[in-house]
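INFO batch 0412 | record 1 of 1 | parsing
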Amino acid sequence: MNMKTLENKIIISTRPLSDDDTMKKALIEKGATVLDFPMITILTNEANAEIRSALANINTFQWLLFTSKNGVGSFFKILKEVNPTGLPKIAVIGKTTANEVRKNGIEPELVSSGNTSEDFIGELKTKLRPDDPVLVIQGELADTKFEKNLISGTRLNVYKTVETTSHSIEIINRIKANDYDMLVFTSPSGFRNFAKIMDENNCNGNFKIACIGKTTEKEVLNQGYTPLIVSKKPGGDSFADEIENYFTK
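INFO prediction complete | emitting C-alpha coordinates
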Protein backbone atom coordinates (compact mmCIF):
# COMPACT_ATOMS: atom_id res chain seq x y z
CA MET A 1 0.00 0.00 0.00
CA ASN A 2 1.23 3.51 -0.84
CA MET A 3 3.03 4.95 2.18
CA LYS A 4 1.27 8.33 1.61
CA THR A 5 -2.30 7.01 1.64
CA LEU A 6 -3.25 9.53 4.33
CA GLU A 7 -1.88 12.58 2.53
CA ASN A 8 -4.04 15.69 3.17
CA LYS A 9 -5.79 13.92 6.10
CA ILE A 10 -5.82 15.86 9.38
CA ILE A 11 -5.80 13.60 12.44
CA ILE A 12 -6.27 15.15 15.88
CA SER A 13 -4.60 13.05 18.60
CA THR A 14 -5.86 13.38 22.17
CA ARG A 15 -3.16 11.07 23.56
CA PRO A 16 -0.68 12.28 26.22
CA LEU A 17 2.37 13.95 24.72
CA SER A 18 5.23 11.48 24.32
CA ASP A 19 8.68 11.47 22.75
CA ASP A 20 7.97 7.97 21.46
CA ASP A 21 4.40 7.97 20.12
CA THR A 22 4.27 4.98 17.75
CA MET A 23 0.77 5.81 16.50
CA LYS A 24 1.65 9.41 15.65
CA LYS A 25 4.85 8.32 13.92
CA ALA A 26 3.00 5.69 11.84
CA LEU A 27 0.29 8.16 10.80
CA ILE A 28 2.86 10.75 9.73
CA GLU A 29 4.72 8.09 7.71
CA LYS A 30 1.43 7.38 5.92
CA GLY A 31 1.21 11.07 4.98
CA ALA A 32 -1.21 12.39 7.61
CA THR A 33 -0.92 15.69 9.42
CA VAL A 34 -1.19 14.91 13.16
CA LEU A 35 -2.23 17.69 15.54
CA ASP A 36 -1.58 17.17 19.26
CA PHE A 37 -4.59 17.96 21.45
CA PRO A 38 -3.70 16.06 24.66
CA MET A 39 -6.58 15.45 27.05
CA ILE A 40 -4.62 13.75 29.82
CA THR A 41 -1.15 13.79 31.34
CA ILE A 42 0.56 10.75 32.88
CA LEU A 43 2.29 11.40 36.23
CA THR A 44 4.52 8.85 37.97
CA ASN A 45 3.48 8.28 41.58
CA GLU A 46 5.80 9.11 44.45
CA ALA A 47 7.60 6.10 45.90
CA ASN A 48 5.31 5.86 48.94
CA ALA A 49 5.45 3.20 51.69
CA GLU A 50 3.27 0.75 49.71
CA ILE A 51 5.43 1.03 46.59
CA ARG A 52 8.69 0.81 48.54
CA SER A 53 7.45 -2.26 50.42
CA ALA A 54 6.40 -4.03 47.20
CA LEU A 55 9.72 -3.28 45.51
CA ALA A 56 11.74 -4.27 48.59
CA ASN A 57 9.96 -7.65 48.46
CA ILE A 58 9.84 -7.95 44.69
CA ASN A 59 11.61 -11.30 44.64
CA THR A 60 8.70 -12.86 46.53
CA PHE A 61 6.69 -12.55 43.28
CA GLN A 62 6.97 -15.04 40.42
CA TRP A 63 5.76 -12.61 37.75
CA LEU A 64 5.44 -8.90 37.01
CA LEU A 65 2.52 -7.98 34.74
CA PHE A 66 2.51 -4.83 32.61
CA THR A 67 -0.56 -3.79 30.64
CA SER A 68 0.67 -0.47 29.24
CA LYS A 69 3.73 1.48 28.17
CA ASN A 70 2.90 4.07 30.84
CA GLY A 71 3.08 1.41 33.55
CA VAL A 72 6.49 0.25 32.35
CA GLY A 73 7.90 3.77 32.15
CA SER A 74 6.70 4.75 35.62
CA PHE A 75 7.74 1.44 37.20
CA PHE A 76 11.34 1.66 35.98
CA LYS A 77 11.53 5.35 36.91
CA ILE A 78 10.56 4.46 40.49
CA LEU A 79 12.84 1.42 40.41
CA LYS A 80 15.89 3.67 39.98
CA GLU A 81 15.06 5.27 43.34
CA VAL A 82 14.48 2.02 45.23
CA ASN A 83 17.03 -0.10 43.35
CA PRO A 84 16.14 -3.71 44.31
CA THR A 85 18.35 -6.61 43.19
CA GLY A 86 16.88 -8.69 40.37
CA LEU A 87 13.34 -8.88 38.99
CA PRO A 88 10.79 -11.68 38.53
CA LYS A 89 9.70 -12.88 35.08
CA ILE A 90 7.85 -10.23 33.10
CA ALA A 91 4.62 -10.62 31.10
CA VAL A 92 3.20 -7.85 28.91
CA ILE A 93 0.29 -7.16 26.58
CA GLY A 94 1.17 -5.68 23.19
CA LYS A 95 4.31 -4.90 21.21
CA THR A 96 4.51 -1.31 22.42
CA THR A 97 4.59 -2.40 26.07
CA ALA A 98 7.14 -5.12 25.26
CA ASN A 99 9.43 -2.64 23.51
CA GLU A 100 9.26 -0.31 26.51
CA VAL A 101 10.46 -3.17 28.74
CA ARG A 102 13.30 -3.93 26.29
CA LYS A 103 14.49 -0.31 26.53
CA ASN A 104 15.40 -1.19 30.12
CA GLY A 105 17.58 -4.10 29.00
CA ILE A 106 15.09 -6.86 29.83
CA GLU A 107 13.39 -9.35 27.52
CA PRO A 108 9.79 -10.14 28.54
CA GLU A 109 9.12 -13.80 29.29
CA LEU A 110 5.61 -13.52 27.81
CA VAL A 111 4.27 -11.10 25.20
CA SER A 112 0.54 -11.73 24.80
CA SER A 113 -0.44 -12.55 21.24
CA GLY A 114 -4.07 -11.63 22.03
CA ASN A 115 -5.75 -8.25 21.84
CA THR A 116 -7.64 -8.03 25.14
CA SER A 117 -7.10 -8.33 28.89
CA GLU A 118 -9.04 -11.61 28.78
CA ASP A 119 -6.64 -13.00 26.15
CA PHE A 120 -3.69 -11.93 28.28
CA ILE A 121 -5.08 -13.54 31.44
CA GLY A 122 -5.82 -16.77 29.55
CA GLU A 123 -2.25 -16.99 28.19
CA LEU A 124 -0.75 -16.17 31.56
CA LYS A 125 -2.75 -18.86 33.33
CA THR A 126 -1.11 -21.50 31.10
CA LYS A 127 2.25 -20.38 32.54
CA LEU A 128 1.19 -19.99 36.19
CA ARG A 129 0.73 -22.40 39.03
CA PRO A 130 -2.42 -21.46 40.98
CA ASP A 131 -0.47 -20.10 43.96
CA ASP A 132 2.22 -18.22 42.00
CA PRO A 133 2.29 -14.65 43.40
CA VAL A 134 1.90 -12.01 40.68
CA LEU A 135 2.49 -8.25 40.92
CA VAL A 136 0.22 -6.34 38.53
CA ILE A 137 1.65 -2.93 37.60
CA GLN A 138 -1.18 -0.50 36.84
CA GLY A 139 -2.35 3.09 36.76
CA GLU A 140 -4.83 4.33 39.34
CA LEU A 141 -7.77 4.37 36.89
CA ALA A 142 -7.24 0.85 35.49
CA ASP A 143 -9.98 -1.70 36.09
CA THR A 144 -9.69 -4.70 38.45
CA LYS A 145 -9.80 -7.56 35.91
CA PHE A 146 -6.35 -8.86 36.75
CA GLU A 147 -6.68 -8.93 40.53
CA LYS A 148 -10.09 -10.61 40.23
CA ASN A 149 -8.93 -13.27 37.77
CA LEU A 150 -5.59 -14.17 39.35
CA ILE A 151 -5.74 -16.04 42.66
CA SER A 152 -2.47 -14.58 43.95
CA GLY A 153 -2.54 -11.24 42.16
CA THR A 154 -1.39 -8.07 43.94
CA ARG A 155 -1.95 -4.67 42.40
CA LEU A 156 0.58 -1.84 42.49
CA ASN A 157 -0.42 1.58 41.14
CA VAL A 158 2.66 3.39 39.80
CA TYR A 159 1.08 6.29 37.91
CA LYS A 160 -1.93 8.56 37.84
CA THR A 161 -3.87 10.10 34.97
CA VAL A 162 -4.58 13.83 35.25
CA GLU A 163 -6.89 15.83 32.99
CA THR A 164 -5.16 18.62 31.07
CA THR A 165 -6.49 22.12 31.72
CA SER A 166 -4.86 24.17 28.96
CA HIS A 167 -6.05 23.58 25.39
CA SER A 168 -5.46 24.97 21.90
CA ILE A 169 -8.23 27.37 20.90
CA GLU A 170 -7.09 26.91 17.30
CA ILE A 171 -7.81 23.17 17.45
CA ILE A 172 -11.11 23.71 19.28
CA ASN A 173 -12.18 26.09 16.49
CA ARG A 174 -11.02 23.57 13.89
CA ILE A 175 -13.23 20.89 15.47
CA LYS A 176 -16.16 23.34 15.59
CA ALA A 177 -15.66 24.06 11.88
CA ASN A 178 -15.40 20.32 11.09
CA ASP A 179 -11.98 21.05 9.59
CA TYR A 180 -10.38 17.71 10.38
CA ASP A 181 -10.71 14.06 9.32
CA MET A 182 -10.48 12.02 12.54
CA LEU A 183 -10.26 12.47 16.31
CA VAL A 184 -8.22 9.75 18.05
CA PHE A 185 -8.88 8.51 21.60
CA THR A 186 -7.01 5.83 23.54
CA SER A 187 -8.55 6.11 27.02
CA PRO A 188 -11.95 6.69 28.67
CA SER A 189 -10.52 9.52 30.79
CA GLY A 190 -9.24 11.25 27.65
CA PHE A 191 -12.69 11.17 26.07
CA ARG A 192 -14.40 12.34 29.26
CA ASN A 193 -12.21 15.43 29.38
CA PHE A 194 -12.70 16.04 25.66
CA ALA A 195 -16.50 15.90 26.01
CA LYS A 196 -16.32 18.34 28.93
CA ILE A 197 -14.13 20.79 27.00
CA MET A 198 -16.34 20.61 23.92
CA ASP A 199 -19.41 21.26 26.06
CA GLU A 200 -17.73 24.27 27.68
CA ASN A 201 -17.03 25.60 24.17
CA ASN A 202 -20.58 24.97 22.89
CA CYS A 203 -19.45 22.29 20.48
CA ASN A 204 -21.55 19.11 20.50
CA GLY A 205 -21.51 18.01 16.89
CA ASN A 206 -21.17 14.63 15.23
CA PHE A 207 -17.51 14.10 16.03
CA LYS A 208 -15.49 11.80 13.77
CA ILE A 209 -14.04 9.43 16.35
CA ALA A 210 -11.54 6.56 16.29
CA CYS A 211 -10.77 4.77 19.56
CA ILE A 212 -8.82 1.84 20.97
CA GLY A 213 -10.45 -0.86 23.07
CA LYS A 214 -13.82 -1.73 24.58
CA THR A 215 -13.49 0.53 27.63
CA THR A 216 -12.82 3.63 25.53
CA GLU A 217 -15.62 2.68 23.13
CA LYS A 218 -18.00 2.25 26.08
CA GLU A 219 -17.19 5.75 27.36
CA VAL A 220 -17.76 7.24 23.89
CA LEU A 221 -21.13 5.48 23.61
CA ASN A 222 -22.11 6.51 27.16
CA GLN A 223 -21.52 10.14 26.21
CA GLY A 224 -23.95 9.72 23.30
CA TYR A 225 -21.49 9.42 20.41
CA THR A 226 -20.73 6.58 17.99
CA PRO A 227 -17.12 5.89 16.97
CA LEU A 228 -16.32 5.33 13.31
CA ILE A 229 -13.40 3.05 14.19
CA VAL A 230 -12.87 0.81 17.23
CA SER A 231 -9.47 -0.90 17.24
CA LYS A 232 -9.36 -4.18 19.13
CA LYS A 233 -5.55 -4.27 19.09
CA PRO A 234 -3.63 -2.24 21.69
CA GLY A 235 -0.65 -1.16 19.56
CA GLY A 236 -0.21 2.27 17.98
CA ASP A 237 0.99 0.77 14.68
CA SER A 238 -2.11 -1.39 14.28
CA PHE A 239 -4.36 1.54 15.23
CA ALA A 240 -2.72 3.65 12.49
CA ASP A 241 -3.29 0.78 10.03
CA GLU A 242 -6.99 0.66 10.89
CA ILE A 243 -7.31 4.42 10.36
CA GLU A 244 -5.56 3.99 7.01
CA ASN A 245 -7.91 1.15 6.05
CA TYR A 246 -10.94 3.27 6.94
CA PHE A 247 -9.90 6.03 4.53
CA THR A 248 -8.74 3.74 1.71
CA LYS A 249 -11.46 1.06 1.71
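INFO post-check: The longest strand covers residues 153-163.
INFO record closed
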